[in-house]
Amino acid sequence: TRSLLSVFEEDSGNLTEYTNQLLQTLQRVFGAQSEMGLATEQLSRQLLDYEKKNFALGKGDEEVITTLQSFAKTVGELNSLHSGLANQMADSMVFPLIQFREKDLTEISTLKEIFGIATDEHEAAMVKYSRLPKKKENEKLKADMMKEVAYTRRKQHQASLQYYCALNALQYRKRVAMLEPMLGYTQAQ
Amino acid sequence: TRSLLSVFEEDSGNLTEYTNQLLQTLQRVFGAQSEMGLATEQLSRQLLDYEKKNFALGKGDEEVITTLQSFAKTVGELNSLHSGLANQMADSMVFPLIQFREKDLTEISTLKEIFGIATDEHEAAMVKYSRLPKKKENEKLKADMMKEVAYTRRKQHQASLQYYCALNALQYRKRVAMLEPMLGYTQAQ
């Protein structure tokens, strides 16, 4: 199982790396969409500002003002559209992947740590047990040590089950985690 | 005419200021659109990278890979679209206003400068003429100075005509200059 474990671990390491890169890119797309909303908002405001400039020589300016105002309206609508898309992207594209990273991937690394500690404890107990002097008068101590070995083994076994289980579940969650943001992105188009 | 001139000048100053602000905003919109293209390009590449990760535990990965590839294709098409829009914005929205600023507004300020120099020269000539001693033996010098006054007045008159003419023309070009980028923007949507 040790080598199968290392395959699982490598896989989950790869997935974490890929997830981080993908998340960065998704956040870049979201950032661009969000900036698009802000830029069009500024443009819409600026077009309305033309009127406030109060050009003294307003020959034909009424036409310009009216036209710019109707442009400002169109740009304002585009702005709502862009901002709406940005919000949708945040909710249904970036957020699920962040959650996957924070919840599933972080869980894996926590469980890995717990499993490592349990393994160390179990090994330490075994070393202590093996170093006991082989004299008869140590029977009581020996029995205590055996209990400790058994206890730490149980603990390690439990931690390993949780860890393997999470690694295995990750394989299934991965698929959803990879596809969900893209579905969200497609919806936001 | 002096006070009418100052109205024209104030107007053109206002217009320059407004043009600079508008240009900044248009460039911001263009920048956002351009970033949108770059971000989607990166996303499309990243989706294809999933396959190259070569996850050892490829249970169900073929499906994920195929789906991500088809997403990558869609995102790639969006990328071309965004990049195309960005190019169109550069050509038909930002460029016309840059040209207006570089050509029309710069011409005004150049002509204003020339007009100012010509005015100074004419005034200097008049001052010199008025300070001539009123003696008869200075008739020759006086005639020369009168010629200079007449010459600088002609020059100043010419410069003023060009300057006024450009200020006046600006009033007409202004309308096109303000509306053209917005037409370009609307086309790019």
UniProtKB/TrEMBL annotation, chains A, B:
Signal peptide: none annotated. It comes from the Eukaryota. InterPro entries: AH/BAR_dom_sf, BAR_dom, DP13A/B. It holds the Pfam family BAR_3. Residues 1-189 form the BAR domain. Transmembrane segments: none annotated. This is DCC-interacting protein 13-beta. It comes from Xenotaenia resolanae.
